[in-house]
């Protein structure tokens, strides 16, 4: 019997019983529309066929729960011809994880960046989320972010069946990334073979408390799943739904930056300003997934599936903004009493400080629609074919509403003491202040423009920035595969895929003003809320209110920014863009299998060709006023790949993979939004501009991987993974020659009769790259592999070391976003007789993290190393008991209250210091 036929005929009792035990739609792996990446339930164990079921039932130990999910993940790794990591559904559903981002961040070589305490984006092999692709059931997805990176907290863990991370590509893997591809998989009801009805609920508590008025410290989530088959198992239906209403709290210190200064002849860095908030988030998320399968004949399977997510992230942000060491707005540093340590002014005093009390709202609402149709023909003559259609759409509104208050308008000291004297102490947790003013007294705090940000006599009492994003994608794919009997060549696949995507950003911005020309207005008492406590910063309580209520009452008014006409707000228009992409992918892949004396050689070789047509529509800014223009490019990428696996009978597996890999650039980097003019410092003049680059090409690399894997029984593995990527094309901001011949002449061009249309553009550009290499150690060991006395105990996890060197457009070595030299994660567990307990930890070293800057624009800063520890204890009532089917659990997240910290030029120059507190969750799942 051929190797793969033997595998497919084996029966995994452990995975089967795990299927029955799981709640909330949490099931083992199933076949997906991704063609060669299909995995059937029978492929979870490489053992020989069970010929005597009764005898087998007497000898086998039924493994369920977390241990069964680990066995399934180990089998996925062992049987795949690619280099993969995976997490199965029970792992997602019962680890202390709010989303799939938390779970896959525990896999070897992967880690996450936290947002408000949640893991929302994942880095693979030291590259940030911009360098990997995320699929849902093998289909590309639109995103709730500004770019291609999928924010994984959009997908509830309860509706996900399995997540597979491909670290090496194949020709038939459509939608691959530069460093990896994440495929999220949902339930396929015909392949479960049983009816499943399950419900679950949990409550959550944040020990940091309800920091803002109107916020909560308690939350909940509920979920349900239904799976069944009808008409002699030819029709299958699955439905899964999850609803979350949970709070997240954040105490934050944030610095504007650090100013270079001299104090008594000493060179030192001095905090330049502070914008620190207490943030309370209320996350409400509804996720619904449904699948309908019909098998009208044994050879044909039709599948329709859909996913919907409604995401509402409502944040109240209250704090004080303080102009300090940059010397702006009249603030002065008093050098009389100060201390300096390691080049940083660690204590001192500022005089004449006029603070801005901030009562801001940040609200993100997103609707994500995804679905598709798949028709799979599996003939008896070795021919297999499928057609797949996928659709994805995301509609997102992201409102940032700022409201300012203070003791007087534009530094006008009216006797109320608008200027403060503030002492400070800077350290490894940021800066703590000691002000001379009480910022919680409503008799002294007014709605106004304390620092004159409105630029004159008209006060700007706030700002409204609503970013409207629409993202739509259609995908069509067809594939034909022919299998051969015997011989080195097992099968040949040929496929075609067409993807069209349009993503647009429309900014809607307005000034927040005071009505009737007022410069300051008292806050009506009926709108005052409980003061917000900033004692952790030394600032005490501050006046608090909801600016949305003041706008609704007419106390504050919105003055829209003019978006058209001679007074167009160019800074608003420059943020808008529409990007269109049409991708035609052709691929050919040969799959090989050759039995040897001591094992078997399997793998694939193939080539993928991608034709990209990209266009960007946006504004340019000549003298006559803003004009719309469309520019773009058309190019091919040819991506050969090969994966070979030598599987020995001794349970050693040796793998080698080589491929040409790409990742398309960030969408906002390809926007057309260019301002330009004449630089008269050059004789004869030269046109210079800045903005996006609609001609930008992908990141490209040549990669090779080598794996050594040793398997123990059905659930243990130790794997050493070595990899190297020669990065041929990277994307950095730079200055390059640009043809302005299609643009209207810039202002003043008449004075330069010989002005060349070839000028320069400051924008993202493809440059020479560098290299990335490293090693990963992955371990999953159930201890009963070595001794029956240790049954139920085990460990799983991994460690990775990555080294990189990338050069920017000027040839200077720089850092890759999301890159961490060390990533370590692990889980120690015990699971036996219904009892289960787990402790999980993940560590990542310093990395370049993504943050939200002024006006919602992304900025990057160095984030310090962090270690996150989670734990769970639970009990599953056993078969035959009165409460059979019920599972109870208690979870703890971030048990050491690990902060998230970013720094400036030096490690002791703290920019962000964020505390999320610990979270505790208690819940149950019940299957009928």
Descriptive account of the structure:
Its main location: membrane. It is found in: Cell outer membrane. One of its GO terms (cellular component) is cell outer membrane. The protein is mostly beta strands. It is 6% helix and 57% strand. It has a 33-stranded mixed sheet that branches. The protein has a 5-stranded mixed sheet with strand order 1-6-7-4-5. A 4-stranded antiparallel sheet has the order 13-14-17-18, with no helix packed on it. It is globular and about 85 Å long. The protein starts with a helix and ends with a strand. The relative contact order is 0.12. The model is unreliable at 1-61 and 91-96 (pLDDT under 50).
Q: What is the number of domains?
A: 1
Give the N-terminus to C-terminus distance in angstroms: 40 Å
User: Number of helix segments?
Assistant: 8
CATH architectural label: Beta Barrel
Entry summary:
This protein is mainly beta and 928 residues long. The chain has one domain: Maltoporin, Chain A (Beta Barrel), CATH 2.40.170.20. Helices cover 6% and strands 57% of the residues.
Layout of SSEs?
Blueprint: H1 3-9, H2 13-21, H3 53-59, H4 65-79, E1 84-88, H5 89-94, H6 100-104, E2 110-115, E3 118-124, E4 132-136, E5 139-140, E6 162-166, E7 180-185, E8 196-206, E9 218-230, E10 235-263, E11 266-297, E12 300-323, E13 332-341, E14 344-353, E15 356-378, E16 383-406, E17 420-427, E18 430-435, E19 446-448, E20 462-483, E21 489-513, E22 520-522, E23 529-533, E24 541-544, H7 547-552, E25 557-560, H8 570-573, E26 577-596, E27 599-621, E28 627-648, E29 652-663, E30 674-679, E31 686-690, E32 699-712, E33 716-739, E34 758-767, E35 770-782, E36 793-807, E37 813-814, E38 822-832, E39 835-844, E40 847-852, E41 858-863, E42 866-876, E43 886-893, E44 900-903, E45 910-915, E46 919-927
Parallel strand pairs: 4-7, 27-30, 31-34
Antiparallel strand pairs: 1-6, 2-3, 4-5, 6-7, 8-9, 8-46, 9-10, 10-11, 10-45, 11-12, 12-15, 13-14, 14-17, 15-16, 16-19, 16-20, 17-18, 19-22, 20-21, 21-25, 21-26, 23-24, 26-27, 27-28, 28-29, 29-32, 30-31, 32-33, 33-34, 33-35, 35-36, 36-37, 36-38, 38-39, 39-42, 40-41, 41-44, 42-43, 43-46, 44-45
């Amino acid at each position: 019997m051929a190797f793969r036929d033997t595998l497919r005929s084996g029966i995994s009792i452990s995975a089967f019983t795990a299927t029955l035990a799981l709640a909330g739609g949490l099931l083992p792996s199933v076949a997906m529309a991704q063609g060669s990446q299909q995995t059937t339930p029978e492929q979870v164990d490489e053992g020989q066929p069970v010929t005597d079921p009764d005898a087998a039932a007497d000898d086998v130990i039924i493994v369920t729960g977390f241990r069964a999910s680990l066995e399934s993940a180990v089998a996925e790794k062992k049987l795949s011809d690619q280099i993969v990591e995976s997490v199965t559904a029970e792992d997602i559903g019962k680890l202390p994880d709010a989303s799939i981002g938390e779970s896959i961040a525990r896999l070897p070589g992967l880690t996450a960046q936290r947002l408000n305490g949640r893991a929302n984006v994942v880095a693979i092999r030291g590259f940030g989320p911009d360098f990997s692709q995320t699929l849902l059931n093998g289909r590309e997805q639109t995103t709730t972010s500004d770019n291609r990176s999928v924010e994984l907290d959009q997908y509830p863990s309860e509706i996900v069946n399995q997540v597979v991370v491909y670290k090496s590509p194949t020709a038939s893997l459509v939608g691959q990334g530069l460093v990896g591809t994440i495929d999220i998989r949902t339930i396929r009801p015909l392949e479960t073979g049983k009816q499943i009805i399950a419900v679950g609920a949990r409550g959550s508590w944040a020990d940091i408390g309800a920091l803002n008025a109107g916020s909560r410290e308690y939350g909940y989530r509920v979920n349900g799943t239904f799976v069944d088959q009808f008409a002699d198992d030819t029709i299958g239906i699955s439905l899964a739904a999850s609803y979350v209403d949970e709070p997240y709290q954040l105490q934050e210190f944030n610095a504007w930056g650090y100013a270079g200064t001299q104090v008594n002849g000493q060179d030192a860095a001095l905090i330049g300003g502070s914008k620190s908030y207490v943030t309370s988030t209320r996350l409400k998320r509804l996720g619904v997934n449904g699948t309908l399968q019909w098998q009208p004949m044994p050879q044909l399977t039709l599948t329709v599936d859909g996913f919907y997510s409604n995401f509402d992230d409502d944040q109240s942000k209250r704090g004080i903004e303080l102009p300090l060491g940059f010397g702006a707005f009249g603030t002065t540093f008093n050098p009389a009493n100060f201390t300096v340590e390691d080049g940083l002014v660690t204590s001192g005093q500022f005089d004449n400080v006029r603070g801005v009390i901030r009562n801001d709202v940040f609200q993100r609402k997103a609707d994500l629609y995804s679905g598709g149709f798949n028709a799979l023909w599996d003939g008896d003559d070795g021919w297999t074919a499928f057609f797949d259609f996928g659709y994805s759409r995301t509609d997102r509104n992201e409102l940032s509403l700022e409201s300012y208050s203070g003791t007087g308008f534009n530094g006008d000291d009216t006797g109320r003491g608008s200027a403060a004297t503030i002492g400070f102490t800077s350290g490894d947790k940021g800066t703590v202040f000691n002000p001379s003013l009480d910022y919680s007294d409503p008799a002294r705090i007014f709605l106004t423009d304390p620092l004159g940000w409105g630029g004159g006599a008209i006060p700007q009492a706030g700002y409204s920035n609503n970013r409207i994003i629409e993202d739509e994608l259609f995908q069509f794919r067809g594939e034909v595969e022919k299998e051969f009997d015997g011989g080195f060549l097992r099968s040949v696949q040929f496929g075609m895929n067409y993807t069209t995507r349009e993503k647009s950003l429309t900014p809607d911005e307005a000034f927040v003003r005071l009505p009737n020309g007022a410069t300051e207005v008292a806050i009506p008492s009926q709108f005052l809320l409980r003061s917000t406590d900033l004692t952790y910063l030394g600032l005490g309580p501050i006046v608090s209110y909801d600016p949305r209520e003041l706008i609704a009452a007419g106390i504050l008014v919105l003055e829209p920014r003019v978006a058209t006409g001679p007074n167009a707000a160019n800074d608003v228009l420059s943020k808008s863009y529409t990007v269109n992409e049409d991708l035609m992918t052709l691929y050919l892949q040969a799959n090989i299998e050759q039995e040897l004396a001591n094992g078997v050689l399997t793998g694939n070789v193939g080539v993928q060709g991608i034709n990209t047509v990209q266009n960007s529509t946006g504004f340019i800014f000549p003298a006559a006023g803003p004009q719309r223009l469309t520019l773009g490019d058309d190019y091919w990428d040819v991506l050969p790949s090969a994966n070979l696996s030598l599987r020995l009978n001794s349970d050693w597996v040796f793998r080698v993979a080589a491929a040409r890999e790409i990742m398309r650039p960030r969408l906002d980097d390809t926007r057309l939004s260019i301002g330009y003019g004449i630089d008269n410092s050059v004789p004869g003049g030269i046109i210079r501009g800045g903005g996006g680059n609609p001609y930008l090409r992908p990141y490209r690399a040549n990669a090779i991987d080598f794996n050594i894997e040793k398997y123990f029984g059905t659930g243990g593995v130790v794997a050493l993974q070595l990899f190297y990527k020669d990065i041929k094309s990277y994307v950095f901001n730079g200055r390059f020659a640009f043809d302005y011949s299609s643009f209207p002449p810039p202002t003043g061009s008449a004075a330069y009769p010989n002005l060349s249309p070839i000028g320069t553009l400051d924008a993202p550009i493809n440059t020479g790259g560098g290299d990335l290499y490293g090693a990963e150690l992955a371990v999953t060991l159930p201890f009963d592999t070595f001794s029956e006395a240790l049954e139920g105990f085990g460990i799983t996890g991994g460690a990775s070391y990555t080294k990189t060197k990338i050069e920017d457009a000027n040839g200077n070595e720089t850092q890759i976003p999301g890159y961490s030299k060390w990533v370590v994660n692990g889980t120690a567990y015990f699971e036996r007789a219904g009892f289960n307990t787990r402790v999980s930890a993940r560590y990542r070293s310093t990395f370049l993290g993504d943050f939200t800057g002024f006006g919602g624009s992304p900025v990057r800063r160095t984030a310090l190393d962090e270690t996150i520890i989670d734990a769970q204890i639970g009990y599953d009532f056993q078969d035959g008991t009165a409460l059979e089917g019920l599972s109870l659990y208690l979870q703890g997240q971030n048990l050491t209250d690990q902060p998230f910290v970013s720094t400036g030029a030096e490690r002791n120059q703290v920019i962000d210091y964020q505390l999320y507190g610990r979270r505790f969750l208690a819940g149950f799942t019940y299957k009928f």
